[in-house]
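Homework-ish question, so no full write-ups if that breaks the rules, but can someone show me the predicted structure for this set?
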Amino acid sequence: MTGENGTRRIDVDYLARVEGEGSMKVLVVDGVVQDVEFGIFEPPRFFEAFMRGRMFTEAPDITARICGICPVAYQMSSVHAMEDACDTTVDGQLRALRRLLYCGEWIESHALHVYMLHAPDFLGYESAIHMAADHRDIVERGLALKKAGNRIVTVLGGREIHPINVRVGGFYRAPTKPELMALVDELEWARDAAVATVEWVAALPMPWIELDFEFVSLSHPDEYPFNEGRIVSNRGLDIAVAEFNDVFEEEHVARSNALHSRIKERGAYHVGPLARYSLNFEKLRPAARGAALTAGLGSTCFNPFQSIVVRAVEIVHACEEALAVIEAYERPPAPYVTVVPRGAEGHGASEAPRGMLYHRYRIDDKGRIRDAQIVPPTSQNQLTIESDLRAVLDAHLDLPDDELGWKLEQTIRNYDPCISCATHFLDLRIERRRS
Amino acid sequence: MTAPTTRPKLAVYKFASCDGCQLSLLDAEDELLAVAGAVHIANFVEASREVVAGPYDVTLVEGSITTPHDAERIKEVRAESKFLVTIGACATSGGIQALRNWRDVSEMASLVYAHPEYIDTLATSTPIADHVTVDFELRGCPINKKELVELVAAFLAGRKPNISSDSVCVECKRRGTPCVMVAHGVPCLGPVTHAGCGAICPAFDRGCYGCFGPMPGANTESLAAWWRSLGVDDRGLVDAFRGFNAWADTFRAASDRHEAAITVRGAGA
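A: Not a homework solution, just the prediction itself:
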């Protein structure tokens, strides 16, 4: 609203449809955006501190509890880091099963975000439940798609949230071939539903803005990245995971309980579906690439609002990938390789649904954790989210406050921010002043 | 959707947690739209921008109390809730973040944050019931979505929820899983852990690690003797009881007992 002295302020308490607690403040003076702050007030839980002294084998179960939406990502980055520390490689069918588990998480997390959290913005609904009153078939398709992803995680991991079957070195129990084959019909349906999802989201009223992002993701020679690869960017970055701290730095600012990441001497960067897609388009399974091209996407995508389309494309990819893993699956002779601890440091990075997740641990020769560092995707995206908010504000300052406020919320939701990993209490405030 | 509604109003609140337990409501894919038809989801920020003011007929609370602000906020939530249910290990026992309760929190903050002075936090992570009256507790890390749906159905029918307080052992027997401790010598918290998950871990050749917290009357001393016979020392027992329900009375007492034993032996060595 416009105040007596020309100050215009919009208060939106609790940014909805994100995971966790945060705030946003916007200051506009004489029609010029002066300041944008995206803060995170999720109460700190000190994982990196209380993991000190715990056994290296506990890292996948403990770090899973950082995020109920993407526990598999935490499990994967932690086991890779521990295996790196112990100089152990997990390969063959066990490696394939890890990809399968990750496919399940991508499908359920992306379907949740596309249908339940993000699509309602494009169509002007408060929630998917409100949307279901007019589009019940669509919402039911989204829920069924999400369920297909969750079924993979349940069959392989034991349950949807905080799966219990992941261990350093592999799994506690490897599934039988028939157990996985039982997923095939549902996954074939899910792949077709995902292709239909790409068509549906591509036809949504799409805000148009293209931004000059530095995209960062893992890159693997043969595969669209899940668990492994080098860290690359569209501005020439190409490093091993172990070099993460040489290139990226974390900064603690007063407005946030999450640390802000930046590329040293360069600043903000962008992780997540748009980055993975733009850096790895050629590695997508043909059905996913085909769906993307049919939907009008190119081989790169710089419109953050189109992240909803790219997520849908990644669901197609994950369904195809899961079907391929299941088809080639033969039950391994042992469900895990024995990992012997040694005093060393290890690094792991994997692609959480929201973007790259980096873990580093130092352990002693008894396997006790001496030091831990966890860099979640949402803290890496914070600076980029702020610069996107500026760009969207600049382009839409003529909108009335309620519409502008909603547009800014949608801008934040483009990143599927997981504030538990890095939000819940998003207090969104736009202040407009005249000097 | 605009007509006045007489459906019971449901609210979901989050404190320090991972969002996993409230996600369980969205994970009930087959039941979600039916639940949304039977109750008015009036305040569920993770799922909807629409926030309808209280009072609420039933409130689900996820997470533990770790900040001065949250210690006040939970009182406001209680005041606007007729029936308050805590969901999950954080809300019922303080969660994994209760590991801070044995440590110096300012030291922990300085390990994680460059400017610990920016961080406003309490020395402890405590369950909701330490702060306000709780009408029902649903356990688990995470909760079992079937138990959540049963709880809502029971609330709507005005009956007691059919939720077992047996041990995980009973669920293994029902499931027909051979005992991992007896048959394979795998240490398992099943005998002292509250039922609810469906005994998943033993079915995956793994010992229970206590996600649902202690069952009523759990005999942790007897179980510790079993674990010792399997080669687990006091340090290992401290770790086992100091997991996702570390601050639950029975597990806390057991972990303190074994920690004291390490200290005694350490002094004697």
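Now go work out the reasoning yourself. Hint: Residues 172 and 199 of chain B are 5 Å apart (CA to CA).
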